[in-house]
Amino acid sequence: MFHQFEEVAIPIISKYNGKFLIRVRPEDKAIIESTMGKPYEIHLVEFATDRDFDNFMHDEERKKFLHLKEQSIKAVFLIKGTKI
Q1: Contact 47, 17 (CB under 8 A)
Q2: 78: Cβ–Cβ under 8 A, 6 or more apart, which residues?
Q3: Distance between CA 6 and CA 2 in Å, rounded?
Q4: How far apart, in whole angstroms, are the C-alpha atoms of residue 3 and residue 84?
Q5: C-alpha atoms less than 13 angstroms from C-alpha of 30 in its C-beta half-sphere
């Protein structure tokens, strides 16, 4: 289900001026310390503006498939950063 959701959501990112900076599946030996366990996958995505990100989150096509995300992902941590 996770991969089905990604097949829909990932192409939509670029529609809203977003781009992947990195997408990684960490191996056990790559985790030095964690209080949340080992994530299956980590996405670092950049959007040109906050509005672009908001538009991505509210995309109607993406919303049709959110049930796949909700059924296949235990937790999501969203970290909003500022480029310095």
Answers
A1: yes
A2: none
A3: 6
A4: 33
A5: 9
Residue 25 has pLDDT above 90, yes or no: yes
Q: Specify if 78 maps to a domain.
A: no
In a domain, 83, yes or no: no
Measured CA to CA, the distance from residue 28 to residue 41 in angstroms comes to 12
The Cα–Cα gap between 39 and 37 comes to 6
Domain span holding position 18: 2-72
Contact 44, 76 (CB under 8 A): no
Tell me the β-bridge partners of 42.
24
Flag the least confident range among 19-23, 48-52, 73-77.
73-77
- Report the CATH number that the domain containing residue 24 is assigned in CATH: 3.30.70.100
pLDDT value for 62: 93
Establish if 81 belongs to a structural domain. Answer: no
Residue among 46, 55, 44, 43 nearest 15 (CA) = 55
Entry pTM: 0.82
